[in-house]
Amino acid sequence: MSSLVKIKHPVLAACGLALAAAAILIGAGFVSSNSHPAAKPAGPWRAIADAPESISAGRTTVWTGTEMIVAGVNPGSDGTFIHSSEVAEAYNPATDTWRELAEPPATPSYCRRDAVWTGKEMLVWGCELLAYDPAANAWRRLPDPPTRHGIVAWTGRELIGWGGGCCGDVSDDGSAYNPATNTWRKLSPAPISGQQSPIGAFTGRELVIFNGHGPEGDRVGGAAYNPKTDTWRRIPSQRGLRALTAVYDGNEIYAVGGPRVLAFNPSNDMWRQLPRSALGAGDIAAVWTGNRLIVSGATTSAYDPPRDLWKTLATSPLAPRQDYAAVWTGRKLILWGGFVPTSAANPRYLADGAALRPPKYSPPLPQCCGG
Predict the structure, then answer these.
(1) 8 Å CB contact between 353 and 332
(2) For residues 199, 190, 162 and 322, what is the CA-based torsion angle, rounded to 10 degrees?
(3) How many whole angstroms from its chain centre is CA 8?
(4) Domain spans in the chain, listed from the N-terminal domain onward
């Protein structure tokens, strides 16, 4: 947890530092898009251009540094996924434009999919593994993984996947892929049983997986995996944890899942509860901006760690939806796509989105000049 800096001597230098700190503002003005001249702004939010296609299932999303890439599957003409088609497209926020990408190779659609960005390629993990190179606009198949499904993370060297499952089955093992050697390795056995939808985050040292539930509702403990040593350690479970997503801020991992947001410090294995937020239940997007945790769902709020408080921001102008994509560009939070349940057999899939430019942030003044 970030703490306030206390500097006592010399007093004049400390006050100078305080004035300098007060002048630091992160963020700038928002440049609106011409693609939606009739769109009404919602505070710091702006609508973005609609994508060429919506994506119905298996959607994966990465931010490359210049584009948001989304890939997934759409049903065939019969409305089922028996004859589904793969889709990939990319959004450039600088120009508010989309481009259609080369069609990904077909892979089974029944596995949970996820993706990571390596700095060069988008690696899509599911029943099989694919790699997409934006510079060449080309996909390639990778060797079959020893395991499938589950949580994925990019360590800077490897993609790690662990856990997961489908239809009553659950996996308690994992594997790692090294793009430099185009090879897989099996992870050492975990000290916990498997989870179908594990939640956690990579800290730069460990992949931390929170406690959860197995397919039959049985409780599953938490653990942390160190890829350098190929070893696991148990971490304390948190009672009543209902995390939907997790975000690491360089110090703590925030477990976000509604009004009750928890933080876990992997350096001392301590949990703490954040002040109650205005967040509601349902789908939630969470990102770390470098100084605040931004969480958007039914409401949008920002958590300031040094001040230990939440601030409610303007709510997204998007119509309520489920399963949308979210990325942090370094300046904006982009939400896109998802679906709206209908009374008919098939939901209505969406291709619209919105971008949030968070208000300017002023760090708290260092404590100084006191007697």
Answers:
(1) no
(2) -20
(3) 40
(4) 11-356
11-356 CATH choice from 2.60.40.10, 2.120.10.80, 3.90.1640.10, 3.40.710.10: 2.120.10.80
Do 129 and 115 meet the contact criterion of CB atoms below 8 Å apart?
A: no
pLDDT digits (tens, 9 = 90+) for 59-107: 999 999 999 999 999 987 777 777 788 999 999 999 999 999 999 998 8
Q: How confident is the model at residue 368 (pLDDT cuts 50, 70, 90)?
A: low
- State both tokens at 281: 């239940």
Count of CB atoms situated within 10 Å of the CB of 168:
8
Chain position carrying tokens 């959860």: 212
Q: How far apart are CA 108 and CA 111, in angstroms?
A: 7
Q: Which long-range contacts (CB under 8 A, 24 or more apart) does 18-25 make?
A: 18/365, 18/366, 18/368, 18/369, 21/363, 21/364, 21/365, 21/366, 22/362, 22/365, 24/362, 24/363, 25/360, 25/361, 25/362
In the block, which residue shows the tokens 């993990």? 125
Nearest to 153 by CA among 248, 71, 76: 248
| Residue bearing tokens 């481009």 | 99
How many residues belong to the chain? 371
What pLDDT was estimated at residue 160?
97
Name the helix (H) or strand (E) containing 277: none
Could you give the CA distance from residue 257 to residue 280 in angstroms, rounded to a whole number? 9
pLDDT single digits (tens) 255-310: 998 778 999 999 999 999 999 887 766 778 999 999 999 999 888 999 999 999 99
DSSP of 149-212, one letter per residue? SSEEEE-SS-EEEE---STT-----EEEEETTTTEEEEPPPPSS---SS--EEE-SS-EEE--E
